[in-house]
């Protein structure tokens, strides 16, 4: 399979590889996928507790080149966004940007799941949306 | 010697044609283009003579008593189809049960699935963790309805060689026919249909430095005489088992490849095993949690298959594929997104089945290529491990099995 130039670029020069301490204030962690499916993504955001803006983001991914590229791209897009803006990132945006073929769409879905999981973890740790959660 | 890129180390998918093979084939495209079944003029005689020479060379290579026992086909897949379907149809009255293994190549498994849909029953014998089939398991699977045992000679992913003589003996004892898919083995390791008790054997040209598009099925004529229902109806070529004009240039090339293999197999096998062992050593001495797949002392000399924990196969290939052609057990490159069923059959965890890489060397592989590919593989694995959340968790001492993974 030929990869798009953008996927190759992210694979060769992944942005924001690394980890934050899970319990650092303002950090939200998402760990999604499963080893037996061949894809696991860990995506972390570091939110400025005063402004609610994502100041930094990091990832580590076990998976194919498209999975690595999808999560690398996600961290790039997350930086500078508020948590509400971040929640609007859709897997189809990632598909379009990276020109993923149909068999790789699940990589973008996993990246969106990772973003959502990181945001949820951040909110839970900082008791944001507790009202909404209580009313569920 | 300077390296020439890309380096080909995927020789169990196909091999390059040996230049000597190409040279032997060329006249049969142009001046010697006759139809071997044209019995009434020199063009036909010349073509028929060339096919006879090729058939004899192939017969010699696999130890067949009579060259007439070889039926030329379009390749391994067709040979396997003809063997299994031909026997199933011809011996339907005798019984409707086939014994095979879970690690056969796709052609073998898919033909069996079709036969099952048509009402036959098939037993798929498991393999041991080292990739070797326990002959006793085959014995247990054979019933009084069994008409055929079909076990591959050498596995296409892990190169493991099965105990073919023991299976041949068992088949004789039980009065059951024995087919082996020897597409990966013929020309690489000694094959002897007489000494090994093989009744049907599939092989192909393009995995032994011959051309693509030609293969053969060995069909025993004596003790027992094997009969097959043909899949192709037509002019009754190849003793009625495979109608169709013989592709003379391809057959000539196949024959030449067999002749070269016969002469060079021993020295080539030793050379490739040395190079393969060196490659294995470079990688396993520098990478932790890398596991050799298949029994080390019973595999094809050119095969090396390693699972790298915590990294995914396709991403490894992506790091190497600009300069080196390799193949991954992970079928992630196809649309199926399935891990290797061969590695999974060894009892490895599914994640290791996603991370197996096959290195297959060939006649033209150089020591310099081996050094380069070994070093580059180590670099790529290390880079991907730095990026792997699983490696990070494992290094923190987290048991990956203790995590509740949310599978999609």
TL;DR?
The complex is a heterodimer of chains A (136) and B (408). Chain A has helices spanning 5-12, 65-78, 83-86, 91-98, 105-125, 130-135; strands at 27-34, 39-47, 54-62.
Overall SS class of chain B: alpha/beta
Determine the number of helices of chain B (DSSP H or I, runs of at least 4 residues).
Answer: 12
Regions with little confidence, pLDDT below 50 for 5+ residues of chain B = 331-336
- Element-by-element helix/strand order of chain B: EHHEHEHEHEHEEEHEEHEEHHEHH
**Biggest beta-sheet profile of chain A:** 3 strands, antiparallel
In percent, how much strand structure appears in the residues of chain B?
5-15%
Helix and strand content put the structural class of chain A at alpha+beta
Proportion in helices of chain B: 25-40%
The residue ranges of chain A in which pLDDT falls below 50 over 5 or more consecutive positions are 131-136
* Name of the CATH class of the largest domain in chain B: Alpha Beta
Features:
heterodimer; A: alpha+beta; Sufe protein. Chain: A; three-stranded antiparallel sheet; 6 helices; 3 strands; globular; disordered C terminus; B: 408 residues; alpha/beta; Aspartate Aminotransferase, domain 1; Aspartate Aminotransferase, domain 2; seven-stranded mixed sheet; four-stranded antiparallel sheet; 12 helices; 13 strands; 38% helix
């Amino acid at each position: 399979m030929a990869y798009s130039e953008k996927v190759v670029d992210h694979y060769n020069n992944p942005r924001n590889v690394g980890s934050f301490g899970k319990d650092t204030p303002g950090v939200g962690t998402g760990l999604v996928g499963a080893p037996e499916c061949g894809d696991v993504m860990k995506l972390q955001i570091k939110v400025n507790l005063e402004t609610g803006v994502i100041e930094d983001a990091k990832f580590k991914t076990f998976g194919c080149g498209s999975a690595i590229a999808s999560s690398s791209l996600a961290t790039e897009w997350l930086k500078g966004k508020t948590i509400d803006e971040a929640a609007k990132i859709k897997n189809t945006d990632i598909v379009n940007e990276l020109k993923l073929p149909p068999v790789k769409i699940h990589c973008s879905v996993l990246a969106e799941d990772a973003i959502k999981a990181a945001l949820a973890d951040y909110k839970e740790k900082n008791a944001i949306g507790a009202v909404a959660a209580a009313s569920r | 010697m300077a390296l020439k890129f890309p380096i080909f180390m995927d020789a169990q998918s196909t091999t390059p044609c040996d230049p000597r093979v190409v040279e032997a084939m060329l006249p049969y495209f142009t001046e010697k283009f006759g139809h071997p079944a044209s019995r009434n003029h020199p063009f036909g005689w010349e073509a028929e003579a060339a096919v006879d020479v090729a058939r004899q060379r192939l017969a010699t290579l696999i130890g067949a008593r009579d060259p007439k026992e070889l039926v030329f086909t379009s390749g391994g897949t067709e040979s396997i189809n003809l063997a299994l379907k031909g026997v199933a149809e011809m011996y339907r009255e005798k019984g409707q049960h086939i014994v095979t293994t879970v690690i056969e190549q796709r052609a073998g498994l898919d033909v069996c699935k079709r036969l099952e849909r048509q009402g036959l029953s098939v037993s798929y014998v498991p393999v041991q963790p080292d990739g070797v089939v326990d002959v006793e398991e085959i014995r247990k699977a054979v019933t009084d309805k069994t008409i055929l045992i079909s076990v591959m000679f050498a596995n296409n992913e892990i190169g493991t060689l099965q105990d073919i003589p023991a299976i041949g003996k068992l088949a004789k004892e039980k009065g059951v026919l024995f087919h082996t898919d020897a597409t990966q083995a013929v020309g690489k390791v000694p094959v002897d249909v007489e000494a090994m008790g093989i009744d049907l054997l599939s092989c192909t040209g393009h995995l032994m430095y011959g051309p693509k598009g030609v293969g053969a099925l060995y069909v025993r004529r004596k003790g027992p005489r094997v009969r097959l229902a043909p899949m192709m109806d037509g002019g009754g070529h190849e003793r009625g088992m495979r109608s169709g004009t013989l592709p003379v240039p391809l057959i000539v090339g196949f024959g030449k490849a067999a002749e070269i293999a016969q002469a060079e197999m021993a020295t080539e096998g030793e050379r490739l095993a040395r190079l393969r062992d060196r490659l294995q050593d470079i990688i396993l001495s520098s990478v932790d949690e890398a596991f050799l797949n298949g029994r080390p002392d019973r595999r094809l000399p050119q095969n090396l298959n390693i699972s790298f924990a915590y990294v995914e196969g396709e991403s490894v290939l992506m790091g190497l594929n600009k300069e080196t052609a390799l193949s991954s057990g992970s079928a992630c490159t196809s649309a199926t997104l399935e891990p290797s069923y061969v590695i999974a059959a060894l009892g490895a965890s599914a994640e290791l089945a996603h991370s197996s890489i096959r290195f297959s060397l060939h006649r033209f592989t150089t020591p310099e290529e081996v050094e380069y590919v070994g070093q580059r593989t180590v670099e790529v694995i290390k880079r991907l491990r730095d990026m792997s959340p699983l490696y990070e968790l494992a290094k923190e001492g987290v048991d990956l099995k203790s995590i509740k993974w949310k599978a999609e």
